[in-house]
């Protein structure tokens, strides 16, 4: 019978730049994963830090090449969208590559301040401030602006600008406007709720930005939530956006930049089928063509890639702890973790990842379903991007079997929560950071131990020193009830 490695070599061009097998064990970016497992155990989250810089430089290269090919006269600025992963090790690694940041919440701002304190960002680092902003967020942004930080609030609704009118004391303020795109035809809504509708953009500029000598409209922004794809939908939204840019640029000479959002995809299968360079080339060609047609100078281009920055750096490794044959055909490999809690996108939106065994590559293989530890019937994984079936090595009682999910570095902790209370109290796994020293040698360091029961007991209120603090003023953005809505307290003294 054929072995697992035969199956993979027949299905894909294998090995790849990223994945290789030596002595029947998997290497991820040349990191021998069995060594990591022997040292740290499973379940394990792992971040291969050098991938972050590699992708930042790749994206810069795609834009540089495209600019050269089309003799494009604008500049390119790489921003990292922090919501993909707020962890300090991700931000610090990305910032080593001289990037800029995009934020989405008031809670991003203490992070920016801490990065500034550590000397990782400067006052000239662009902070593109996106999101629907509540008072604390506009207040924090205004404070940064007044202190000379290079913040560009991207207006998401018509009222947001009023906060800056009141709070910004600096001499000038660069503003952006997010334009609400139409959604993909099969989506539940016609137009995105995010951003300002096309028809309102000009009026907002004319009534609120142009008359105020402090304000400069610097940037228009759009984001296609289905990502940068070679589809009629993407091209039609980009074209519409660029025509609006040209219309606005003619009435607003300060406008010289566009932010085309995130959405550069990552690989979710060993089958590479996305031509990054060609896609960026076409974007640049389109932008330039539309500007030339309208006699408008081409804009400087900003991106805010989240998944592309951090997604491919992440992996989750599990041990198969049991095999359960539940009828004549359905064999389950039970893992020592959970898809619902550790990889919520795999459960919530049927996201596929690159999934490979870590060892036993010379064993024969069989079709299996992977089962998670929670008691939720949906806690499973059994198809792949390229196939409706999932295969794993057959292993004996004497052997251990480990499996890895790769390119899991974006959004999973933001969505699933981190170190909190999750389904069936499945704990957050240990998290190890893998890096290379100046000589290219692999280094590892533990970022987080596995979550312990004590942390859950505290959150759940079973400890005196509770996670839920009583009667302390909140620093968050809790809505305060209107005076009249405050319920009268019952008089208990009586
Ligand atoms: C405004 C905005 N920019 C950038 C991103 C990052 O997208 P991605 O992770 O696909 O690059 C998002 C993601 O939701 C977003 O909402």
Descriptive labels:
disordered C terminus; eight-stranded parallel β-barrel; TIM Barrel; alpha/beta; 494 residues; Lyase, Ornithine Decarboxylase, Chain A, domain 1; globular; 2 domains; nine-stranded mixed β-sheet; binds pyridoxal-5'-phosphate
Summarize this entry quickly.
The protein has helices spanning 4-11, 33-40, 50-70, 88-95, 108-117, 135-146, 160-167, 198-209, 232-251, 276-293, 307-310, 339-342, 344-348, 412-416, 453-459; strands at 19-22, 25-28, 31-32, 44-48, 76-81, 100-103, 127-129, 151-155, 173-178, 215-221, 257-259, 300-305, 314-325, 331-335, 354-357, 365-367, 369-371, 380-381, 391-393, 402-406, 430-436, 442-448.
What can you see in these coordinates?
Its cofactor is pyridoxal 5'-phosphate. Its EC number is 4.1.1.19. Keywords: Lyase, Pyridoxal phosphate. One of its GO terms (molecular function) is arginine decarboxylase activity. The protein has 494 residues and is α/β, with parallel strands linked by helices. It has two domains: 4-49 and 311-455, Beta Barrel (Lyase, Ornithine Decarboxylase, Chain A, domain 1); 72-305, Alpha-Beta Barrel (TIM Barrel). It contains 15 helices and 22 strands. It has helices at residues 4-11, 33-40, 50-70, 88-95, 108-117, 135-146, 160-167, 198-209, 232-251, 276-293, 307-310, 339-342, 344-348, 412-416, 453-459; strands at residues 19-22, 25-28, 31-32, 44-48, 76-81, 100-103, 127-129, 151-155, 173-178, 215-221, 257-259, 300-305, 314-325, 331-335, 354-357, 365-367, 369-371, 380-381, 391-393, 402-406, 430-436, 442-448. Strands 4, 13, 14, 15, 17, 18, 20, 21 and 22 form a nine-stranded mixed beta sheet that branches. A hairpin with a 5-residue loop joins β13 (314-325) and β14. It is globular. It starts with a helix and ends in a 35-residue tail after the last helix. The relative contact order is 0.15. The structure holds pyridoxal-5'-phosphate. Pyridoxal-5'-phosphate (PLP) is lined by residues 81, 84, 102, 130, 223, 227, 261-264, 304-308, 410.
